[in-house]
Amino acid sequence: MSTQYDAIGAKYDLFCDLPIQQMNHAAMMKHLGPIVHSKRILELACGTGFYTSKMLHMGASHVTAVDISSAMVSAAQAKIPVEMKDNITFCTADCAQSSMWNEVQLRGQEGTFDMVVAAWLLNYAETREMRRMLENIYLALKPGGILIALTVNAPIIDSFQPNDQLNPREAHLGSVYDVIGTVEGGYKILLSSVGLGENDIKFEFYFLREEVYRQAAAEAGMGQLEWNVVLLGEEHLQMQGPKFWQLYLDRPRSAICVSRKPKVELREQSSINISSGSELLTKTE
């Protein structure tokens, strides 16, 4: 993942201006706005710093922003006003590895964060990496702390198939998803932006089943995952009109996952049959 985003760098800001991304941003801001004030926040997959700067302006007491791509971190650092630099720490690290806690900016910070914000992080994990990411999120949070993660709308995975005929019709939204491979629990996806001309970008990620997310969260010790499908806000409906958004409404790709670290330290060892969705849980203190 580092290599593909090092190559994209600041072009990602242009991608963020496309219609579907603007809708995702609006949904995230509705989740973040009421709760970030005075909070100590760990942002994983900070990218070029869109949410980093927003959370600082909304009154977060401190944001530690982490990304695997040094190019992305550099772009994010450039956006922070001088007067806010005391409230932000940047770190280049792999959020899917426990070794991220060895980075000087994160050393000794386990269990000190009120919130973890992860916009487009979990969709870069295959099944095993998903658990490692969520274990790091569990370690980061104080008991009762909250995770807010923008990711793919996993429950609709079966609406995507190789050689999907719907994809070209969705191009006006600003990006298309193409299934380019099958992995355990889901698909490998190539996202292609549309409408940026020579600045169009492509990158790969994973679209995994809801059961994979739930199993990883349970095994990491997190509480129940709450899925919030990203739907159309009134401002976007008025701006582009209902016909523009109909294909997205028929197949909403994005969701915001919310989960809390239990106040009582209780891990769940979970075994899920991904094909059937059946789940067995045994709790251990």
UniProtKB/TrEMBL annotation:
Residues 41-145 form the Methyltransferase domain. Keywords: Methyltransferase, Transferase. It comes from the Eukaryota. GO terms for molecular function: methyltransferase activity. GO terms for biological process: methylation. SUPFAM superfamilies: S-adenosyl-L-methionine-dependent methyltransferases. Pfam families: Methyltransf_25 (PF13649). The keyword Nucleotidyltransferase does not apply. This is Methyltransferase domain-containing protein. It comes from Botrytis byssoidea.
